[in-house]
Structure prediction request, 312 residues.
Amino acid sequence: MRGFIHKPVMLREVLECLAVRPGGRWVDGTCGGGGHSAAILEATSPDGFLWACDRDGDAIEAATERLGSHAGRWELKRMNFSALDQWLGRGKADGVLLDLGVSSYQLDSASRGFSFQADGPLDMRMDVRGGMTAAELVNGWGVGELARIFRELGGEPEAGRMARAIEAERRVRPFTGTGQLAACIERVSPRRGRRAHPATRCFQAIRMVVNGEIESLAAGLGAAWRVLRRGGRLVVITFHSGEDRMVREFMRTEAREYDMPPGQPDVPELRIPRAARARLVSRKAIQPGEAEQLENPRARSAQLRVAEKLED
Ligand SMILES: C[S@@+](CC[C@H](N)C(=O)[O-])C[C@H]1O[C@@H](n2cnc3c(N)ncnc32)[C@H](O)[C@@H]1O
Prediction:
């Protein structure tokens, strides 16, 4: 697919953390244009195998073209990574990669409706075959709900004012395009020389709701973990602090040597001892180096976490 541009983030770190080697079996749950996938296939030549998926039809088309030269060593499927275990079964893979969020291609293609830089239909769905569009959300949700997602998912300090401005405008003219929404938000919070567009946080929040990103991640972490064999590695790259917290908590819980009774605070007296199910390969999140951050501004907020499975 022509024009699919996306630079894979922290490529060297991903390959190291997945501990790729020839002969292994790998999973890329967010293949996008196939940047990480192609690198995994190259590093695992001649006989490594890769299962890869993405919810986005354009991504699958681009990745199919990109991986073409590694014939017979990969299988691609258009699906949500939250169902990886239903696709692949348990205990099969040596490593699973989840590189969350959206690709540069999605952000930069006006027709996909993610962009506040270029006007396009207010869509934002990764999988355009169904589900709520951004226009349906922006025109249909109450002011309180809009303010809540702008605040909770976008971290937007002016969430209430922005939600009220949207409500006032849609009474006169329902939102149909990304340009209209970006301009409405910019009137509430003018740019005044800031680097980021004032609509950045609201657009992120809307996108995350439209695509059920938090719910997919909550289910996807468990699904990816089940797909791993003992000794296999889960590598997750996030670009959102809430998502990073979810990944950190998931990995820490697996690495603990105890369970907690459901709904109880974590106090030593209540702990039920058990063997750790994971090893944290790196205690802290790994971030891109300075050179990568300079070269690829989209990498700046990336955080990579990695855990190794210790049980079957
Ligand atoms: C940051 S891009 C990945 C880029 C890719 N690693 C590469 O090197 O080209 C994220 C991709 O994940 C996909 N995606 C996001 N959430 C998904 C989910 N729950 N299931 C499947 N794909 C998802 C998006 O459609 C997008 O193509």
